[in-house]
Amino acid sequence: MTQMIAEAVRQASVNFMDTVAMLLPRILITASIVAVGWVIAWALKWAVRWILIWSRFNHFCERIGVSAVLKTADLPPADHLVSLIVFWLVWVGFLLSGVDVLGFTALEGMVRSFAQFVPRLIVAIVIVVLGFVVANFAWRATLIAAVNARVPSPRVVSGAVRALVLILAGAMALDQIALARTIVLTAFAIAFGAVMLGLAIAFGVGGGGIARRILDHWFPEHPQAAEQEEFRHL
Amino acid sequence: MAVADDSLLSDDLLRQLMATGHVDILVGVPTLNNASTVVDVVRAAQRGIAQYFPRARALIFNADSGSDDGTPTLVRDATTDDTGTVSASRPLRTTNRISTPYHGLPGKGSALRVIFAVADLLSADAIVTLDPNVISVTPDWIPALAAPVRDGHADLVAPRYPRAATDGPLVTQLVRPLVRAAYGWTLYEPLMGEFGCSPQFAAHCLEHPALGTVIPEDVDVWMAAEALAKGFRPAQAALGPRLLGAPRKRPALRDVFQQVMDAVCACLELHDAYWLPRGAADPVPCFGTLNGAVEPGPHPDVTAMAEAFARDVAALRPVLATILTETTLAGVTAAAATPPRLVYDDDLWAATVFEFLLAYHRAVMTREHVTQTLLPLYLGRTAAFLMQHASSEPAIVDAAFESLCLAFERAKPSAAALWKKA
Amino acid sequence: MTAGDPLWYKDAVIYQLHVKTFFDSDGDGVGDFRGLTSKLDYLQALGVNTLWLLPTFPSPFRDDGYDIADYYSIHPMYGTMEDFQGFLAAAHDRGLRVVTELVLNHTSDKHPWFLQARSSRDNPRRDWYVWSDTDDKYRGVRIIFLDTETSNWAWDPVSRQYYWHRFFSHQPDLNYDNPAVREEMWQVMKFWAELGVDGFRVDAVPYLVEREGTTCEGMPETHEVIKFLRGRLDAHFPGRMLLAEANQVPELVRPYFGDGDEFHMAFHFPLMTRMFMAIRLEDRGPLTDIIRRTPALPDNCQWAVFLRNHDELTLEMVTPEEREFMYDEYARDPVARLNLGIRRRLAPLLDGDRRRVELMNGLLMSLPGSPIVYYGDEIGMGDNVYLGDRNGVRTPMQWSGGWNGGFSTADPERLAFAMISNPVYGYQAVNVLAQERSGHTLLNWMRRLIRVRQSTRVFSRGSLTLLEPPNQRVLAYVRAFQKEQVLVVNNLSGTVQAVELDLSSLAGAIPVEMFGQSLFPRIGTQPYLLTLGPHAFYWFRLRRL
User: Fold this and answer.
1) How far apart are CA C283 and CA C534, in angstroms?
2) Does the pLDDT of residue A229 top 50, yes or no?
3) What are phi and psi of C68, to 5 degrees?
4) Which one of the listed residues C109, C203, C217, C312 is annotated catalytic?
5) C371 phi/psi in degrees, rounded to 5
6) B139 strand-pairing partners
7) Helical packing angle, C354-366 and C442-454, nearest 10°
8) CB-side exposure of C411: number of CA atoms within 13 Å?
9) Residue A125, SS3?
């Protein structure tokens, strides 16, 4: 009995040793892949950062309004952020390939699904970023145009426009990564509808006169009437 | 010879030019749907030539960019109404008249290209361009604009009009002080509606790619700036007041403002090597004396303007914050805070304009947004100026204009330093 | 020489000369009729067919002979009556007609008629002049010689009355309300016509009759006087010609032609001024304007056109701006200005520019009217503005480079007027002898020009149709007479020009250049393109073959 137990233990030890002997090189390979990956990701991070600085990327972001958003969210500057994203994407990629080398079946499934998820994540990030850009641009354009066109409550109008664009972009991003699609869709529909309904009610109930003024402004019946107030600027 | 490409002058036009031959004075009238006013302008030009240059070989040249209201026909008819009606003083030589449509990009720049090309081909000694929309043009504008060139005193003669406080604030409050401070010349009307120029300057403009392409509209300010920046001798001619006829369709203020600011800023970008190091303004010689009653013009509702200014500043605050420095923004906010007692002083206004200029230069946002954000502030400044000076004596108004220009000159050096850094 | 075509004056090319300064045959320093006779071959060779002589009557010469003291003889310094008749016969033998001066309006105050008239108020000749107790009559009538006269009335201390004079006070006006005066002037005309004179150039025509409350110019009664004289002349001497001097715009000159029963010819003064203006402005406007304003004439009448004459180039009929321009361009030196005009000859006026001289003569010979060549201008003679009055353009004819330019054998100091002797226009440089020796001189060119003009009657009698090419520097017109058509194209500018002529109405014709007989492309319905050198002009005979 004792012998049986000893045999089993020995067998297990042998198996364990075999397994360890078999795994050890893989672990070493994994470790080296992860290490090399870190170095490459780090190098890429600095390369990307350098290229972005050289191409005045921050300047561009400032222009399209991204910088302002980042600042508001207490995030690092745009070039820093992009290089960080690149670093993490590359390093996580290496990390996963390293894990893959280990040959754990359970891990393999996770790695595969993560590999499938990464492109969609990237797309989602891009959508969010673009959404911010578009929302900011649309907000400013609406605000300035509304002010110059003497549209009442320009900030409400422009804020609504920004909210709509952001909601749309958020919904698209979530849809892209396919997280709780039904909930996202429902929430989007509710949020979008709420904004539109709110605007409609505000416009209809509180602003019949304002609505008429706006419509008059955009579709003047007597063009001169609107111009009479102006005098010669040149 | 600096003659433009083939497409600029049609064969038919060339035949007419061949028959015209060398001219001493060329009066160019670029038109687009100016039926209501162009006849008087052409007649004034005819009389001006007859009265003041009776011996000159002259050509009145109309370049039309596709009017559909019969402007070219009217020009031709105005010309058939021959010198018989002005027999009191008629030119010794035949005054040639040509009206031609031109092809290419529509816009005043293209029209001027044709006019300059014609002047170059005919070796005109002096070129005068008239605005077809001005109803107050008189025959003596022709010698006022042409004589300094003919006498060899100048390459570009800009106009100078007597201006009331309410008359053309876009010029008096913005373009004039800005151009003066930047370029360092006391040019009163950089948006030259009409001007005289020498053949050398015309040839220079003709060769310049900017004319008619980069700046299709408001090319006048580019011409003034180009003359200053490239060392052509500037001069000014005192004319009477400038009154415009009612256009068929008046362009919206925002479009006008956008065009003017784009043109001015484009010039500043183009010429920064010249203007950045310039110091205090040199005087541009002025020929003649300003006369003619200053037309007060329609009086705007300044109280409403001031209230609108307060609302606009509040609304635009987040945008303004990305353009203006904190000090200036605080100043503007304070100025807008109490609409009935709106005070927007010269130095604050000069700082505002230069900071917008820098934002435009750095493109912190789309340039259209920069200029359109300046528009409400411009209206606020105008309201503030009118509150103070709408009923002032002309001399006091002129002094106020001058002090504004000096404020811009004071604000320029620091702005120039920041411009270089950007 | 009275036979032949009664309309001869229409085909005339007139040569205007001063006997006094043309040729001196007897060495007394003054030209004379024998001298003139000896130079008729020269004039014949030039191609002219009519001579117009400035006055040669006895005169105190206070107005260069226009103050006549005897209407029935020749001043002795010009020769005898026989000399004159000899000249007339020699001229007629060569086919040259002769036109003399007839000063109707006034006489010299040394004329026996006036001496008798002023001797007493009862004298039978008293009424031959215009007298008044006051100088109030005819108030408002303009004074012509503003520089010298203060009134049109002059006080006669002998008969203690004022007498009327439109010109100098030594030139009392005859009284044409008096039939005896008219009769006497007819006798004068008859006297000279009987001798064989072919025509009279009548001086100062508008002023013959005075009427209260008018300008006293061109009165209906004046026209009656002219009609009276013309009637007599036609009745007794058919084919003789009357040429009027009326320095006015063509509309106002037109009445002196009547219905073809007053003057045969009259000078076209503004056309001359406009020619000078147009060539300096390099613009046809002044010429087309005056051509359009020139009224049509009765069939038997003709304009007399000229470039220069014995007087100043008159600027009376131009606007102040135009006059200022003409002064600036043609008389920058104020000494060249006289009254309202410029006292210079053709060549100096045109800066001695042969091309311009040729163009001006080309215009003269191709525009409607009978052209007058002023003596010396055919060789490009200069002037001497320092001689005073208008004598600067009346210096002696320059025949050769020798003694007194071949004009006279007298001592140079004795000459009526000094010869031009500067190196540019002096007789050594500019003279007939030298110019006859070369084919390309102005003289020979003028001979050719006159010959070409006289080769057709289209210039002398034809109609004129202005063309309107867009190039204002080019003056073009078509002259047409019967079946003949001539196209004339003139480049008024000093630079090369291209011109497109609308000749569609002449389509099919072949232009033949008249000086060289060169053929040009047939005229079609498209614009006819010509290029012209500086101040060039073309005359094309249009043939339909």
Assistant:
1) 13
2) no
3) -90, 135
4) C203
5) -80, 150
6) none
7) 20
8) 2
9) helix
**What's this model's pTM, rounded to 2 decimal places?**
0.78
pLDDT at residue A227 tops 70: no
d(CA C505, CA C510): 13
- Looking at residues B4-13, what average pLDDT do you find? 71
- Considering only residues A119 and B309, tell me which one the structure prediction assigns the higher pLDDT: B309
B83 has pLDDT over 50: no
Q: Are A31 and A84 in contact (CB under 8 A)?
A: no
Strands C265-267, C302-306: pairing is parallel
pLDDT at residue B248, as a whole number: 66
Q: Poorest-confidence range of A26-40, A48-62, C201-215, C520-534?
A: A48-62
- For B73, residues 6+ apart whose C-beta sits below 8 A from its C-beta are none
| pLDDT at position B403 over 60 | yes
Determine whether C245 is an active site residue: yes
To which H or E segment does residue B71 belong? helix B71-80
Given a contact cutoff of 8 angstroms between Cβ atoms, the answer to whether C268 and C227 are in contact is: no
Longest CA span, chain A: 112
Question: Has residue A35 got a pLDDT over 80?
Answer: yes
Structure-model confidence comparison of residues B108 and C243, the more confident one = C243
Contact C318, C326 (CB under 8 A): yes
Task: Give the sign of the dihedral formed by CA B59, CA B60, CA B64, CA B67.
Answer: negative
Contact B386, B165 (CB under 8 A): yes
Which DSSP letter does residue C339 get?
Answer: T
Interface A:B, Cβ pairs < 8 A: 67
List, for residues B41-77, the tens digit of each pLDDT value.
999 999 999 889 988 999 999 999 888 888 988 888 8
State how far the alpha carbon of C80 is from the alpha carbons of C21, C74, C397, in Å: 17, 6, 22
Contacts of B308 in chain A (CB under 8 A): 150
B chain contacts of residue A140, beta-carbon cutoff 8 Å: 319, 365, 369
- Write the pLDDT tens digit of every residue in C35-71: 999 999 999 999 999 999 999 999 999 988 999 999 9
What is the Cβ-side half-sphere exposure of residue B27, based on CA atoms within 13 angstroms?
30
A227: Cβ–Cβ under 8 A, 6 or more apart, which residues?
A: B250
Q: Is the dihedral of CA C269, C275, C281, C286 positive or negative?
A: positive
Rounded to whole angstroms, the Cα distance separating B126 from B67 reads: 27
Q: How far apart are CA C48 and CA C99, in angstroms?
A: 13
pLDDT of res. B102: 81
Question: How many helical (H) and strand (E) elements, i.e. helices and strands, does chain C have?
Answer: 16, 21
- Give the Cα-Cα-Cα angle A54, A56, A57 (nearest 5 degrees): 110
User: Which of B19, B21, B92 faces C277 most closely, judged by CB atoms?
Assistant: B92
Chains B and A touch (3+ CB pairs under 8 A): yes
Listed by number, the residues of chain B in 86-145 with a beta carbon closer than 8 Å to a beta carbon of chain C are 89-90, 92-94, 96
Which residues in chain C come in under a pLDDT of 70?
1-3
Helix (H) or strand (E) holding B100: strand B95-101
* Closest CB from A68, A155, A230 relative to B315: A155
In sequence order, what DSSP letters do the residues of B309-336 get, joined into one string?
HHHHHHHHHHHHHHHS-HHHHHHHHHHH
pLDDT at position B82, please? 47
- The dihedral through the CA atoms of A77, A83, A87, A88 has a sign that is positive
Q: Are B29 and B61 in contact (CB under 8 A)?
A: yes
Inter-chain touch B300–A68, beta carbons under 8 Å: no
**CA gap A185, A171 in Å, rounded:** 7
**Per-residue confidence (pLDDT) for residue B1, from 0 to 100:** 40
Task: Provide the pLDDT confidence category of residue B201 given band limits of 50, 70 and 90.
Answer: very high
**Per-residue pLDDT, C410:** 96
pLDDT, position C97: 97
